[in-house]
Amino acid sequence: MESMTGFGSSIFQGENFQIHCQAKSINHRYLEVTLRIPRRYSSLEERIRKRVLELFERGKIEIQIKIYGFPKEVKDIAFDLELARKIKFNLETLKATLNLGGEITLAEILSFREIVLLEEKEEDLESLWIELEPSLEEALAELKNSRLREGALLRGYIEKFLEELSGVAKKIEALKEKVREENLKKMKERIERNLSELSSQLDEGRFYQEVALFLDRLDFTEELDRFKVHLQEMQNLLDEKASGKRLDFLCQELYREINTLSNKAQSAEISQLAVIAKDLIEKIREQVQNVV
């Protein structure tokens, strides 16, 4: 079992620079990846996302990469020759107009910074990946391990609550016959109180049919059986990958079954057990919200 919450970081030392990589994740319905990376590595964005998708299935994951120091020079120097010619021509014209002596020097022309052009070299993607990959992989591996450790803790909590829910189901099972007899007794008493008033108009066949339907409505055997099946299914899902959404769905089903069961039973004892069961289901759901 894997949690959606975790953190990982790493530092890679290059020849003249360091790369710091942090990877953290929190709960999210789907997998969402956010990248905060230097412009130097922007061309690798899709490759980074693909790697995250290979390792993770759910969660809001943020990758932050920082670079310290100076990687190898990636700029070319060029000159705007046309602009330089115009500057030289205009300077010579100005000198002639002002009757100034001397030649136009290169230093004078270079003082006009507009003629110097710095161009970024387009680096090879594989070279950039070799530079970035060690730090990224280490941070992602640490994030994965962190999520698995947290997942093991979540599993322990969920198994404990499932065991307690199973105990509640057994107590309800033990009360089933007693509750049935109590409801039958209550019904018999109500019938006896009103039988004298109804006797003149009573259709005996219809009367016993209604009694049978009433008792059937009080029978919560099916709900209890489904409740136990859901518990076993949840236990089985703990061994499967990416089971968070299905576990959350089963929590809803457990709540629905125990609620219907409690309403049918019309028993104070079972109502109290249902309250305990609902509390346990809610505790499981809190943990399940963080499961991948």
Automatic annotation (TrEMBL):
Cofactor list: a divalent metal cation
Family: Belongs to the YicC/YloC family.
Keywords: Coiled coil, Endonuclease, Hydrolase, Nuclease
Membrane found in the keyword field: no
Domain of life (superkingdom): Bacteria
InterPro entries: YicC-like_C (IPR013551), YicC-like_N (IPR013527), YicC/YloC-like (IPR005229)
An example molecular function term from Gene Ontology annotations: RNA endonuclease activity
Keyword Nuclease part of the UniProt annotation: yes
Annotated coiled-coil segments of the chain: 158-204
Domain Endoribonuclease YicC-like N-terminal: 1-154
Pfam families, A to Z: YicC-like_C, YicC-like_N
All residue ranges annotated as the Endoribonuclease YicC-like C-terminal domain in the record: 179-291
Protein name: YicC family protein
